């Protein structure tokens, strides 16, 4: 979706009142935006989104008690923060913060923000948009966002195994404890015991940033989704050293390693005979993806086991609903846990932090705001032509899905 | 016997080319067996590595299990070892050494693993890794304990469009990779350990009902978090080619373990880790009975000819790391460690080399700590090469006759070295001392003085061949004056200098290093260059001169009363200890005066109180006080030092005094020559000569079987002669100026059984080593300090100060 075009087509066309709130999650690689539009003013932006996204299913069939509207999601690369600022500015999203209640007359506007960038870019936001970023703790936001999604959004979580997606019915009363694994540039693993009750138990630096960073260096792919796409056609056996390669095709049965288990990721690349150019980018991408997914799956499972957690939710922009990624993670968790633990994924995987930041308005002076019902269903596999000029990581349309909600 | 995946893969090839079947051993079995053997058999096999500093760890083998063995090869295996043959693979990961090298090759175009590692040392990972600070604008994320420098995402900065692969420095890429993989291993390891402890705790306790389970679980987890590492596992050892002695990798791994365990766990490494698998396969030859080996029976020798300098790679570049085989060969009771490049061409060469390797090699005389020799197969060709890593791996000699000295008060805590050379200043000092001493060893003046040595000795003669006794001129360079000797002298000087330089660069190159080891290294080196006894002629000359004045000394002594005599005797020992060719200061003295001049001068300086002066205590023990006569000692062990005046005018008269009091005397001397130290082989002749002038010595020597020629004379008068207690000579099992009492000859060990007094004499045996040693019986340590620095350091004194330390049995 071409935001720039879209935005420029409708300069200042949105009445300010439509945008109630904006929250940001500024990570190492991506900036995630969540903003809320009310229905009352028949948001055009919303219409457009709907039309472009084939069927966002935003026709509402339920009542709107006080204030109806939609939560919109968007993302930008952190390195292109200026695009993001421009977007916010042209959409007048920055006016959707909250005014300092103690000094109503002042023009001090706060926008909820989380992620490291909330600190790093605070001055930039001040300078360019004249808004202050009200910083929320990253982990807290992730947890709040996840809890919100898991409790409020129907069919938010699903399992993925052998290409089969299955929505999980999660009883909000039997949600805790669970392990939340957020795979952004790096990976955080958070044990969640309840609302606001959580602990970051682990993490790893082998995350989405590693996949994309190494992948860029190794394959010359221009964007993340292209790299992911490549992995579909790849064969990791070309590069990975399997148990069978070492044991002449036999399993190492004594310790339960089958011949196809990866003994060493990229272990075959040590051969003298082949250089980087001799390997197919597809194979490289596949090996890389398996290496990272496997590793995350394993560490997650170990942590889940350590804390006696049965459910592991994977989120973050690394996954982006990519089948093979989810499959690898699921297999890893399944393999290590011998089927005892379950890997689950979230449809709004990338926006937990931003959502959490958004939810934190609740605690502030906007006392009237409560999201009480989220009736929306979204098709997960909405296909969309990612616009390369605008957002290189824009492969799936999740980023502009909206959630209808009432406030 | 073979192990590793290749044992399966290449079985047919071995069959075809060598006509041998490979008896395939389970890889894990072998790793564990190898590690258990190394940890039990080699002292200071394990070490920690933090910030470039190695520290060797002494591990009590009763306190070894359970431990975790992390083998970082292509992939990573984590094995919990509970005992011999009792182990379990608890975890593993596919992100290991192969990943590092594979990705590294693709990203950097490095041609060898070592090159890639080398690069990482100059890298800066901040250009590629996304740090917490990069995300937080230079700030820490302190709430969850992440500092700004913590890596948030490995290679996370490489996503920037601006830089392509060519724009990144290979150094930075290598470092990022190294950190990524090392940290990941450390993390999985620590989680695994915590988890295992938890599960173990759970399994040990009968679990209560589900209701309380959660609380209980939380409680257990808390315990596991706090002392997991101490509770569950004693130690974590890392091995595998990824580590293989590379300082930087070890540092990174150590840091990762430290970081993830919040300082509770420490990574340890093994010096012979690259050979774990092969060694384990080797151990499975049960008939060798290697499992009964005791640590004191193993002596490690380093090939002296070609030290590896600077961690440079010798031989062909490393190709396929996976296909690298390790061989452990047992040749004449020595274990050799050999790296072999496993390539098709290698196979052919191995067939050839195989026969060479099994050819007989020179063997150490049994009962000694062994000769170096050129028997290391790695020196035979380019295909078989020693590992070029930062740590030198020696040849393990099995010397079944070596034992732990039975009179050590606490053998487990015993540390022979007084000075630990891991202190760099200390090492530097001794390095200088030894370097300056080199020219004396190959003294050009001496070479000229002495008549040329008849050229009858061909290179390649077995080192066991002894020189004709009449040849009194094979001192230092005496053997002398010949081109061959000069050449060897120069070669020795070069080789030893190289070893010293290597040590300066990597103090842990040869394992844990004390001054004793350093001095021994020099003796090894001399022997290797066929200088079997560099000081032979000097020793003989000094013995002759000293023996000539001995009768006068004995007469003088006999005129004194008991108390004055004892003091004079001790003074004599201290004064005579000045004759030490190992001391630079003394060598200078020799060049100025005659032996007797020096001795007199030395005697005159003997003013009590000495710097360390327990003489009064000793006298009271010997002579008693207030008319009470104490019981004489039953048997005294006298550890003698130098030839010449030292033994003849110092220790022999003291031995005579003890004999006179009815104490059996055992003279303990070196098995092999070291500097001008007297050897067990030379002592009987000296005693025989001295006995000509002294009845006491003669009768005691006869009783001790030292005077073989005189036996016929004494047969008739044997009745009265038998009344004397015996004077005996035993060898100590060493060939060094110092003595490590953990490895002494079985003769000495059995002679020590009835001893109730030990007298250690000389700098090497009483100061450099054993100064702090405690014994089950009384001990007297006598030495003159002939080195200013040692004097300052040890006794806060001056050069030529004396030490007379008497310690009751502890």
Automatic annotation (TrEMBL), chain A:
What is the name attached to this protein's record?
Pantothenate kinase 1
Fetch the Pfam families from UniProt.
Fumble (PF03630)
Write down the superkingdom of origin.
Answer: Eukaryota
Q: Which InterPro entries match?
A: ATPase_NBD, Type_II_PanK
UniProtKB/TrEMBL annotation, chain B:
Q: Lineage of the source organism?
A: Eukaryota, Viridiplantae, Streptophyta, Embryophyta, Tracheophyta
Q: Which protein is depicted?
A: Damage-control phosphatase ARMT1-like metal-binding domain-containing protein
Stored InterPro entries: ARMT-1-like_metal-bd_sf, ARMT1-like_metal-bd, At2g17340_3_helix_bundle, ATPase_NBD, Type_II_PanK
Signal peptide limits? none
Could you state one GO cellular component term attached to this entry?
A: nucleus
Report the record's Gene Ontology biological process terms. Answer: coenzyme A biosynthetic process
User: Which GO molecular function terms does the record list?
Assistant: ATP binding; hydrolase activity; metal ion binding; pantothenate kinase activity
Q: Alphabetically list the UniProt keywords.
A: ATP-binding, Coenzyme A biosynthesis, Hydrolase, Manganese, Metal-binding, Nickel, Nucleotide-binding
In Pfam terms, one family for this protein is ARMT1-like_dom
Respond yes or no to whether keyword Transferase is given for this record: no
Where is the Damage-control phosphatase ARMT1-like metal-binding domain positioned along the sequence?
Answer: 496-794
Source species of the chain:
Gossypium arboreum
The protein's required cofactors: Ni(2+); Mn(2+)
């Amino acid at each position: 979706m071409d935001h720039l075009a879209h935005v420029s087509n409708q300069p200042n066309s949105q009445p300010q009142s439509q945008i109630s709130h904006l929250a940001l999650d500024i990570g190492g690689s991506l900036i995630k935006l969540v903003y809320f539009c009310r229905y009352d003013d028949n948001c055009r932006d919303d219409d457009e989104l709907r039309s472009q996204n084939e069927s966002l299913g935003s026709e509402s069939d339920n009542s709107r008690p006080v204030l109806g509207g939609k939560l919109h999601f968007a993302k930008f690369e952190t390195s292109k923060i200026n695009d993001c600022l421009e977007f916010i500015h042209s959409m007048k999203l920055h006016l959707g913060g909250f005014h300092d209640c103690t000094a109503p007359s002042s023009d001090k506007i706060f926008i909820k923000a989380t992620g490291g960038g909330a600190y790093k870019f605070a001055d930039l936001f001040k300078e360019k948009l004249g808004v202050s970023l009200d910083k929320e703790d990253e982990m807290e936001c992730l947890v709040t966002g996840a809890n919100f999604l898991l409790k409020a959004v129907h069919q938010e979580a699903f399992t993925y195994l052998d290409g089969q997606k299955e929505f999980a019915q999660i009883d909000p009363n039997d949600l805790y404890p669970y392990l939340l694994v957020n795979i952004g540039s790096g990976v955080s693993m958070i044990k969640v015991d309840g609302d606001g009750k959580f602990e970051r138990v682990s993490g790893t630096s082998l995350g989405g940033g590693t996949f994309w960073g190494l992948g860029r260096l190794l394959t010359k792919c221009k964007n993340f989704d292209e790299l992911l796409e490549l992995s579909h056609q790849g064969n990791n056996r070309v590069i990975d050293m399997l148990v069978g390669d070492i044991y002449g095709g036999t399993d190492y049965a004594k310790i339960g390693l089958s011949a196809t288990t990866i003994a060493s990721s990229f272990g075959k690349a040590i051969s003298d005979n082949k250089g980087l150019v001799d390997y197919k980018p597809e194979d490289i991408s596949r090996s890389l993806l398996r290496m990272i997914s496997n590793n995350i799956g394993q560490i997650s499972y170990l942590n889940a086991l350590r804390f006696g957690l049965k459910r592991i939710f994977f989120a973050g922009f690394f996954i982006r609903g990519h089948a093979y990624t989810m499959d690898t993670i699921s297999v890893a968790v399944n393999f290590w846990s011998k089927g005892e633990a379950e890997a689950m994924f979230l449809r709004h995987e990338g926006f937990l932090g931003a959502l959490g930041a958004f939810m934190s308005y609740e605690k502030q002076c906007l006392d009237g705001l409560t999201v009480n019902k989220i009736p929306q269903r979204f098709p997960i596999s909405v296909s969309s032509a990612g616009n390369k000029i605008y957002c290189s990581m824009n492969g799936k349309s999740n980023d502009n899905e909206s959630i209808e909600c009432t406030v | 016997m073979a192990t590793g995946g290749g044992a399966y893969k290449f079985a047919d090839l071995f069959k075809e080319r060598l006509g041998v079947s490979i008896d395939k051993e389970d890889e894990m079995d072998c790793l564990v067996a190898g590690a258990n053997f190394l940890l039990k058999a080699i002292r200071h096999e394990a070490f920690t590595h933090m910030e470039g500093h190695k520290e060797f760890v002494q591990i009590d083998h009763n306190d070894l299990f359970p431990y975790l063995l992390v083998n970082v090869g292509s992939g990573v295996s984590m094995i919990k070892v509970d005992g011999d043959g009792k182990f379990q693979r608890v975890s593993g990961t596919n992100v290991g050494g192969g990943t590092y090298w594979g990705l590294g090759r693709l990203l950097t175009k490095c041609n060898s693993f070592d090159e890639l590692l080398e690069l990482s040392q100059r890298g800066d990972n901040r250009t590629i890794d996304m740090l917490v600070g990069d995300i937080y604008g230079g700030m820490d994320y302190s709430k969850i304990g992440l500092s700004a420098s913590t890596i948030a995402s490995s290679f996370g900065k490489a996503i920037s469009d601006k830089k392509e692969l060519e724009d990144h420095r290979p150094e930075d890429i290598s470092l990022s990779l190294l950190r990524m993989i090392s940290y990941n291993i450390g993390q999985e390891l620590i989680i695994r350990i915590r988890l295992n402890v938890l599960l173990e705790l759970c399994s040990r306790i009968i679990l209560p009902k589900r209701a309380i389970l959660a609380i209980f679980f939380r409680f257990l987890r808390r315990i596991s978090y706090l002392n997991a590492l101490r509770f569950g596992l004693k130690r974590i050892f890392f091995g595998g080619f990824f580590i293989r002695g590379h300082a930087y990798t070890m540092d990174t791994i150590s840091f990762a373990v430290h970081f993830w365990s919040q300082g509770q766990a420490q990574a340890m490494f093994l010096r012979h880790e690259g050979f774990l698998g092969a060694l384990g396969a080797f151990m499975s030859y049960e008939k060798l009975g290697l499992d009964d080996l005791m640590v004191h029976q193993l002596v490690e020798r380093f090939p002296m000819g070609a030290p590896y300098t600077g961690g440079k790679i010798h031989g062909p570049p490393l190709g396929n790391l996976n296909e690298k085989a390790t061989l452990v060969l047992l040749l004449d009771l020595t274990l050799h460690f050999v790296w072999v490049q496993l390539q098709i061409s290698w196979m052919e060469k191995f067939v050839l080399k195989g026969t060479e390797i099994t050819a007989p090699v020179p063997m150490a005389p049994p009962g000694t700590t062994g000769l170096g020799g050129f028997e290391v197969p790695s020196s035979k060709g380019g295909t078989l090469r020693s590992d070029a890593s930062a740590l030198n791996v020696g040849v393990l000699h099995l010397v079944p006759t070596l034992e732990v000295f039975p009179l050590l008060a606490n053998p487990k805590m015993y540390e022979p070295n007084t000075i630990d050379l891991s202190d760099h200043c200390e090492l530097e000092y001794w390095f200088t001392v030894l370097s300056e001493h080199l020219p004396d060893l190959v003294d050009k003046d001496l070479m000229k003085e002495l008549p040329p040595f008849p050229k009858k000795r061909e290179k390649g003669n077995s080192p066991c061949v002894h020189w004709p006794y009449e040849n009194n001129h094979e001192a230092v360079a005496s053997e002398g004056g010949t081109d061959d000797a000069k050449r060897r002298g120069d070669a020795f000087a070069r080789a030893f200098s190289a070893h010293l330089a290597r040590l300066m660069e990597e103090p842990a190159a040869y394992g844990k290093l004390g001054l004793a080891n350093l001095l021994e290294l020099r003796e090894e080196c001399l022997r290797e260059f066929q200088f079997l006894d560099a000081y032979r002629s000097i020793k003989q000359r000094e013995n002759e001169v000293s023996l000539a004045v001995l009768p006068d000394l004995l007469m003088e002594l006999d005129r004194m009363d008991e108390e004055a005599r004892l003091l004079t005797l001790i003074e004599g020992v201290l004064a005579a200890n000045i004759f030490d060719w190992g001391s630079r200061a003394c060598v200078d003295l020799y060049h100025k005066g005659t032996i007797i001049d020096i001795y007199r001068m030395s005697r005159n300086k003997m003013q009590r109180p000495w710097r360390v002066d327990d003489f009064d205590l000793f006298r009271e023990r010997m002579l008693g006080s207030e008319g009470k006569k104490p019981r004489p000692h039953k048997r005294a062990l006298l550890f003698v030092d130098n030839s010449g005046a030292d033994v003849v005018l110092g220790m022999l008269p003291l031995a005579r005094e003890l004999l006179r009091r009815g104490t059996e005397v055992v003279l303990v001397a070196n098995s092999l020559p070291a500097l001008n130290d007297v050897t067990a082989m030379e002592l009987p002749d000296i005693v025989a000569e001295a006995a000509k002038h002294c009845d006491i010595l003669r009768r005691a020597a006869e009783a001790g079987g030292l005077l073989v020629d005189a036996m016929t004379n004494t047969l008739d008068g044997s009745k009265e002669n038998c009344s004397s207690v015996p004077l005996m000579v035993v060898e100590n099992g060493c060939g060094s100026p110092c003595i490590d009492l953990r490895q002494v000859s079985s003769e000495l060990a059995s002679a020590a059984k009835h001893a109730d007094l030990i007298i250690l004499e000389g700098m090497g045996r009483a100061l450099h080593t054993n100064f702090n040693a405690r014994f089950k019986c009384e001990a007297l340590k006598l030495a003159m300090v002939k080195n200013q620095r040692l004097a300052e350091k040890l006794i806060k004194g001056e050069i030529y100060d004396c030490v007379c330390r008497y310690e009751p049995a502890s």
